[in-house]
Design a protein that fits this description.
Aspartate Aminotransferase, domain 1; about 55% helix; binds 2-acetamido-2-deoxy-beta-D-glucopyranose; disordered N terminus; seven-stranded mixed beta sheet; 13 strands; alpha/beta; about 575 residues; binds pyridoxal-5'-phosphate; single chain; 17 helices; four-stranded antiparallel beta sheet
Length: about 575
């Protein structure tokens, strides 16, 4: 049969084809196996590595504690979401926000609001009158030195000069250097002057920014981009003292940099260097130290951090936003100081706020780099935009040239001696307040200074009284001091307006502390469990809400606060 003679062949063919297909499939199977194994091994390596660095960084005890804290937060979060609890908490939160609103947003029949454009513009006189009224709204008296930090101006005369500088450069914008050459020149000179204050080496560079936060954001961005481009780091991490300014946490959120917080333990309240060393791993892109930090005014051990950074070839940012023009001049003003600047070879970037103790108008700061190898990574350059080749040094596009003029005028008007004399007054006043708390019998038994502050901030806590009650009582006397948490404390950041008010501050602090002591004595005598009948705002926010393991209530309150700021 013709067909039958062909069948065996085709069968053979079929089986041959089949077997080659089988071989191919088998090969494929083999490849799949290999792939699966490779993927699995990579997975194992990745997680072993993660586990290794977690254990290296936090130790077994620390890791168990991290896990415990995580579970506690999660469980508390579940508790907060239980039907009965949730409505109760929500109504409490809304009530607090409403209270805040009543305090911040003027209301009632007498209050005029402008929420649409006036059809015809107001007369100049009308605007002037309205501005004067706005300026005169009832407020905590910063003019009389009642506010800690916040207002860093350098005196009436300097304010006038800044106004003039503003007037001359109101329309200018450094984005057009050919149109506003004077602004470009002033900006470059501001950076050069600040560099010279911080012992910058040959080749050091910098940029100006809109404030300390932007300076810090830029330093973190530059470190992240550098590590990505030079070492291929795709999961960046940075190591912060827990007391470092919160702008670093903001940078972590904005730029997806994982943050490791390192404890700053009593009695020195400086960052724990051994913990920093342990946390360094191949993903680390930046180490951070403060000179000094915001909460306690303490200068971290920058020489120690510098040694670690140098040894591990990592960038180290020193936050001198607050120290600004005080810390570089401490020695010249005759005060004790500690090394913190580019003289230490591990320090690669420094942020310095000209708008704090540089007395420049608000909206001005600088970030300095040891060399252009760091600065170039913060630039934004877009070569192919239809709008033209675009390059900008920092976050902003258009920028106010008037601020640059105001800043430049302040620096050259004050001069080194002007800043040294301001340093005398400010640091001297800090030491006066510190001395009162440490030595006056009315204060020293109940209030304790945190660490050894050397610059403008003095923080204190109380082992015996509720420190937040003291903050609230000071608030009632017209003082705005800063409340701190973990540990509960308050601080005074001395500014020029506070210098003249310091004696009154000490007198009021003595009075308030005596009253608190009296209340505490009564409470103990009556055997009451709770500290006081009615809590003030600070005590409620930090003492009650702040003590909860899951801070989502505080987050809700803070969000409500931000919303309130935009209620017309
Ligand atoms: C004020 C401050 C900053 C930056 O704050 P801005 O309000 O953005 O200028 C950063 N670090 C410290 C220690 C500060 O005190
Ligand atoms: C805290 O509680 C909130 C709301 O109940 C929840 O959304 C959040 O995930 C909790 N946080 C943690 C870390 O578990
Ligand atoms: C001042 O602040 C503005 C932005 O607010 C910034 O563009 C400018 O560069 C700053 N200038 C100086 C001298 O710090």
């Amino acid at each position: 049969m013709p067909g039958s003679s062909r069948l065996p062949i085709s069968l053979r063919e079929v089986s041959a084809r089949k077997s080659s297909a089988q071989v191919r499939l088998a090969n494929l199977g083999l490849n799949l196996d290999v792939i699966r194994n490779v993927v699995f091994i990579l997975f194992l390596i990745r997680w072993t590595r993660k586990l290794f660095y977690q254990l290296k960084g936090r130790g077994i005890g620390g890791s168990v504690f991290d896990l415990y804290a995580y579970i506690r937060h999660a469980l508390y979060g579940v508790f907060l979401r239980l039907p009965g609890v949730r409505t109760k908490v929500q109504s409490q939160v809304s009530e607090s926000i409403l209270k805040l609103e009543r305090k911040l947003v003027p209301s009632g029949p007498g209050v005029e609001r402008t929420i649409t454009l006036p059809k015809d513009g107001w007369s100049t006189e009308q605007v002037r009158k309205a501005l004067a009224d706005l300026e005169g709204m009832e407020h905590t008296r910063w003019e009389d030195g009642r506010v800690s930090g916040a207002v860093y101006h350098g005196g009436e005369e300097l304010l006038k000069l800044q106004e003039e500088a503003f007037g001359k450069f109101l329309v200018s914008n450094p984005i057009h250097p050919d149109v506003f050459p004077g602004v470009r020149k002033m900006e470059a000179e501001v950076v050069a002057m600040v560099l010279s204050l911080f012992n910058a080496p040959e080749g050091a560079v910098g940029v100006t920014t809109s404030g300390g936060t932007e300076s810090i954001l830029m330093a973190c961005l530059s470190a992240r981009n550098k590590a990505y481009s030079e070492r291929g780091v795709t999961e960046p991490e940075m190591i912060l003292p827990e007391t470092a300014h919160t702008a670093f946490r903001k940078a972590g959120e904005y730029f997806k940099i994982k943050i490791h917080l390192v404890a700053c333990k009593a009695p020195a309240y400086k960052v724990d260097l051994r913990a920093v060393s342990r946390l360094v791993n191949p993903n680390t892109v930046l180490l951070v130290g403060s000179a000094p930090n915001f909460p306690h005014g303490i200068i971290d051990d920058i020489p120690g951090l510098s040694r670690i950074a140098h040894k591990k070839k990592l960038p180290l940012h020193v936050d001198c936003c607050l120290g600004s023009f005080l810390i570089p001049l401490l020695t010249k003003a005759g005060f004790e100081s500690e090394p913190f600047d580019f003289k230490l070879k591990g320090v690669t970037s420094i942020s310095c706020d000209t708008h704090k103790y540089g007395f420049a108008p608000k909206g001005n700061s600088t970030v300095l780099y040891r060399s252009d190898d760091y600065r170039k990574y913060q630039y934004f350059i877009s070569p192919d935009w239809p709008g033209g080749v675009y390059a900008s040094p920092s976050i902003a596009g258009s920028r106010p040239g008037a601020l640059i003029a105001g800043c430049w005028a302040s620096l050259v008007r004050q001069g080194e001696n002007g800043y040294i004399s301001a340093c005398h007054k400010i640091v001297g006043t800090m030491k006066k307040i510190e001395g009162a708390i440490r030595e006056m019998p009315e204060l020293c038994t109940d209030l304790k200074v945190i660490g050894r502050p050397l610059v403008s901030v003095v923080a204190f806590h109380s082992p015996t009284l509720d420190i937040y009650d003291i903050a609230d009582a000071m608030g009632e006397k017209g003082w705005h001091l800063n409340a701190l948490q973990s540990p509960p404390a308050i601080h005074v950041a001395v500014t020029i307006p506070i210098v003249a008010a310091a004696d009154k501050l000490i007198v009021d602090l003595v009075e308030v502390t005596e009253e608190a002591r009296e209340r505490e004595r009564k409470r103990i005598a009556e055997g009451r469990g709770h500290k006081g009948p009615v809590k003030g705002d600070t005590a409620a926010l930090y003492g009650v809400a702040g003590s909860l393991p899951n801070k989502s209530v505080v987050v809700d309150l803070a969000k409500g606060f931000l919303d309130t700021l935009y209620k017309a």
